[in-house]
From TrEMBL:
Lineage: Eukaryota, Metazoa, Ecdysozoa, Arthropoda, Hexapoda
PANTHER family: IONOTROPIC GLUTAMATE RECEPTOR
Name listed for the protein in its UniProt record: Ionotropic receptor 25a isoform X1
Topology term for the membrane: Multi-pass membrane protein
Cellular component terms per the entry's GO annotation: plasma membrane
UniProt xrefs under Pfam families: Lig_chan, Lig_chan-Glu_bd
Domain Ionotropic glutamate receptor C-terminal positions: 408-808
Family: Belongs to the glutamate-gated ion channel (TC 1.A.10.1) family.
Length: 927
């Protein structure tokens, strides 16, 4: 390949004591050069510096000693091979080569910003100070590709000493919204405990980088902890060859291992057999071999082309920091790219900037299934090429995605209707439904995850006690047992100190009052209770007395109708005011129909006018009092606000123990007490002047004691232990003016009033706070949920959820409306009027029956033998007389009488009309 032979004077090789692979690969490269004449390379000498200390001064002295000796022997180095890995050793070597402007090819770990001594190189310096990242530095980048490809939200990254991850802590998942932890694998005895700690931090995606033996130890520990299954994902990454083995009972693992480029396998095999390139890991040995050989060949190529200029050197003692050395036009980087030597493993990618050059090897992605400690299958699912932003190449993305850990979040909640309610399906399994569950399902459409939900052990939202200890949902989040707190959890300042809240998903909600709905007393004859019984009796007595007077006046007045029939015989209305007519007249005078014709005599008319005036006053008074009476009974609401509740003593009131409402009143009372003490200390301060003290002298306390008194009243009332107990006490109240009132969240009270017809919400809300979803402090879920909730707000999804659970909820009952002024008088209070009608109609029916019976059976016409009574023998038809009222009106009976009978009847009538007596019939006629 190379025809000329060039003497390369010296090389300086610097490496870590912890990197024997690089040293052995360099020996193979030197052996390859010596045994392969076609390279055309001969070495004058080769100096090695193996760093076995982290002391920069000691290492620098060793380097300067080697370097200065080479200058004294007039054999300065042409090239420095820097195979140090990272840390102090690497930075010392780079500082040395940078200061003395020595052409260097480095295989250190890290990207451009990680090489602190080479971070700000000039363009000319960049040409001869070259860094190429080793495979162990690029392989961890596959984690970033996996996380981005499958949107993994958490990651636990474990590694052994075959990988150097010092610089990866900040850069591996930089700008990726993934909560992660990077740690070295502990010894075999502590691996289980290490995995447990990661799991307690809610890590379910595990990446293990290391040798095959390390992978086996970690996977065995995971099997012992039962960390395999749908909730977990395992990624095993190695530089080694061979198959993945572990003792897992049932596990599926994504296994990534390197494989040589197909075009390089023959050459790799020859190097392995002919030159003993057998150090493991194979990919690292091949990389260091190729980099060393390419470095040698690049110098040889530059010398052949006359591009290698004679270098000027400065010893360590002569070096002046204010006069740095810079070599011009030394194109070592370009020469490295132009070398045509075939790669032994994979091609080298040499870029213009350090930190971006590497060997572009491939990693094979296998899905390894382990059953009962045996690998039953290892299916190739794809590949990945080493690189900083290299994407995964998979055969079936869906099948691989199913092997990743499902994002299963543990959700703690509190049962509260209608936000979270517990139900059971047909199989008896516990299910949850409600406003918050629907909200969670809507968020899942935006953020893909699964969840496990459980109720807080004490079914409380969370409050802090005097010792600063939390309970309820807040405690579960603080102690990492839950990822999300879901429910009608109010945003409070003290809670935000220990957990994080998302943006509010529900409007401001305050505290309100729950009371028993007043039961307005009803009576069918309530219209009769408008006037007292004594008044009704007096009205009845006045009625009979006035009717009697009218009858007396009409009978004795000489100007009445019955005493002046001839005078009023031509009047159309002729009314004789007997006792019956007087009763009827007085009764009908009280109605809109009126009493009819008034008496003819003046005295009777005065009595009637007096009765009319009396009736008008009584009817007007009754009507006004009836309306007022029915209205006042409906407007009787003794408590309409918190102030009303605090000013009375008959109704007990309290929130339930441990609730947010209890905390509110307790703190308000405490604040009032503290303010009072502050004012009292000010007013009693002896150091004040007379003027200053006078300014504090007031007749009323400047600090109220409203909440102090209310808190004491709540303690006296003995707070219920839960909402159910509070509602039961409210229901036991005898009325709105005595009993028990519950103070709590307005959402609770509103829902109770909608689903119970005997409860009502009283007063306006106070101490209003929004509801939000809680997450662990610092959790990335906060930002994800914020975005989802804002999207739901923009789409008006939250309004639809409110409508479903508050307006169209099937649990809401349709209660009878409470009487008010707009609704009018209810049938329960005026229904007796209809009973009066029915009773009157019933009496009329009975009277009709009596009249019919009396007419038909008791008052039938009777025929009398007038002749027989007088002893005469006149013909029968001439002495018949029809006796009985109404007989003359019966045409059918009259038609049967003969002419003689009619004549007799007419004769009898004429006699009676003339005032004469018809013998024998006078008595009958009179009747």
């Amino acid at each position: 390949m190379y025809s000329s032979v060039q003497l390369i004077r010296r090389r300086v090789f610097v490496s870590d004591e912890s990197n024997p692979v690089a040293e052995k690969a360099l020996d193979v490269a030197l052996n390859y050069v010596r045994r392969t004449a076609s390279t055309g390379i001969q070495f004058d000498s080769f100096q090695r510096v193996i760093a076995n200390t982290s002391d920069a001064r000691t290492l620098l002295e060793a380097l300067c000693e080697k370097y200065d000796n080479s200058l004294k022997t007039e054999k300065p180095p042409d090239l420095v091979l820097d195979f140090t890995q990272t840390g102090v050793t690497s930075e010392t070597v780079k500082s040395f080569t940078h200061a003395l402007a020595l052409p260097t090819v480095s295989a250190s770990y890290g990207q451009e910003d990680d090489l602190r001594q080479w971070r700000f190189l000039a363009d000319d310096q960049m040409k001869y100070l070259v860094q190429v990242s080793p495979p162990a530095d690029m392989i961890p980048e596959v984690i970033r590709s996996i996380v981005l490809a499958w949107n993994i939200s958490n990651a636990g990254i474990l590694f052994d000493d075959s990988f150097v991850m010092d610089h990866k802590y900040k850069s591996l998942l930089q700008n990726v919204p993934t909560r992660h932890l990077i740690a070295a694998v502990e010894d075999v005895r502590n691996v289980k405990r290490q995995l447990t700690r990661l799991r307690e931090l809610d890590i379910v995606n595990f990446f293990v980088l290391g040798r095959l033996a390390t992978l086996k130890n970690v996977l065995d520990a995971a099997n012992a902890n039962k960390y395999f299954g749908r909730k977990f994902a395992w990624f095993a990454i190695t530089q080694d060859k061979g198959q993945l083995k572990c003792s897992a009972s049932n596990a599926t693992i994504l296994f990534l291992k390197p494989e040589p480029d197909p075009t390089s396998r023959e050459r790799l095999e020859k190097l392995r057999t002919d030159f003993s390139l057998t150090t493991e890991p194979e990919i690292a040995s091949a990389f260091y071999f190729d980099l060393a050989l390419r470095s040698f060949l690049s110098i040889k190529q530059m010398m052949d082309k006359g591009q290698w200029k004679k270098l000027n050197y400065v010893s360590c003692e002569e070096y002046q920091e204010d006069k740095p050395m810079v070599r011009r036009d030394l194109e070592l980087r370009r020469a490295l790219r132009e070398v045509q030597e075939p790669p032994s493993y994979a091609p080298m990618m040499l870029e213009e900037h350090n930190g971006h050059s590497y060997m572009e090897a491939s990693m094979r992605l296998e899905k390894v299934t382990v059953v009962n400690g045996q690998s039953v299958s290892a299916e190739v699912e794809g590949s990945w090429k080493l690189g900083l932003d290299s994407p995964l190449s998979v055969k079936d993305a869906s099948s691989i995605a199913n092997l990743t850990a499902a994002s299963v979040y543990r959700i703690v909640t509190v049962l509260q209707k209608p936000f979270v309610m517990e139900t059971r399906d047909k199989s008896g399994a516990v299910k949850y439904e409600g406003y918050c569950i629907d909200l969670l399902d809507e968020i899942r459409k935006i953020i893909v995850f699964e969840y496990e939900i459980y109720v807080a052990p004490d079914n409380k939202f969370g409050n802090m006690d005097e010792k600063g200890q939390w309970d309820g949902m807040i405690k579960e989040l603080m102690e990492k047992r839950a990822d999300i707190g879901l429910g009608s959890l109010a945003v409070m300042a003290e809670r935000e100190n220990v957990i994080d809240f998302t943006v509010p998903y529900y409007d401001l909600v305050g505290i309100s009052i729950l009371m028993k709905k007043p039961e307005t007393p009803t009576s069918l004859f309530k219209f009769l209770t408008v006037l007292e019984r004594e008044v009704w009796l007096c009205i009845l007595a006045a009625y009979f007395f006035t009717s009697f007077l009218m009858w007396v006046f009409d009978r004795w007045s000489p100007y009445s109708y019955q005493n002046n029939r001839e005078k009023y015989k031509d009047d159309e209305e002729k009314r004789e005011f007997n006792l019956k007519e007087c009763l009827w007249f007085c009764m009908t005078s009280l109605t809109p129909q009126g009493g009819g014709e008034a008496p003819k005599n003046l005295s009777g008319r005065l009595v009637a006018a007096t009765w009319w005036l009396f009736g008008f006053i009584i009817i007007a008074s009754y009507t006004a009092n009836l309306a007022a009476f029915l209205t006042v009974s409906r407007l009787d609401t003794p408590v309409e606000s918190l102030d009303d509740l605090s000013k009375q003593y008959k109704i007990q009131y309290a929130p339930y123990n441990g609730s947010a409402a209890m905390t509110y009143f307790q703190r308000m009372a405490d604040i009032e007490t503290r303010f009072y003490e502050i004012w009292k200390d000010m007013s009693l301060n002896d150091s004040l002047s007379e003027v200053e003290r006078a300014k504090l002298a007031v007749w009323d306390y400047p600090v109220g004691d409203k909440y102090t008194k209310m808190w004491q009243a709540m303690l006296d009332a003995k707070m219920p232990n839960n909402l159910e107990e509070a509602v039961a006490r409210v229901r036991l109240s005898e009325g709105t003016s005595e009993g028990f009132a519950y103070l709590g969240d307005a959402t609770d009270i509103r829902y109770l009033s909608l689903t119970n017809c005997d409860l009502q919400m009283v007063g306006e809300e106070f101490s209003r706070k929004p509801y939000a979803i809680a997450v662990q402090q610092g959790s990335p879920l906060k930002d994800q949920f914020n975005n989802a909730i804002l999207q739901l707000l923009n789409k008006r999804k939250l309004e639809k959820l409110k409508e479903r659970w508050w307006s169209t909820n099937p649990e809401i009952k349709k209660c009878d409306k409470q009487d008010d002024q707009q609704d009018g008088i209810s049938i329960q209070n005026i229904g007796g009027v209809f009973i009066v009608i029915f009773v009157g109609i019933g009496l009329a029916c009975v009277t009709l029956a009596f009249e019919y019976y009396w007419y038909k059976y008791k008052r039938n016409p009777r025929v009398t033998d007038l002749a027989g009574q007088r002893g005469g023998k006149a013909p029968r038809q001439q002495h018949l007389a029809v006796i009985g009222r109404g007989a003359s009106d019966d045409l059918s009976a009259t038609a049967k009488l003969d002419a003689a009978a009619l004549g007799a009847l007419g004769q009898a009538y004429n006699y009676r009309r003339n005032g004469n007596q018809l013998p024998g019939v006078n008595q009958a006629w009179q009747h």
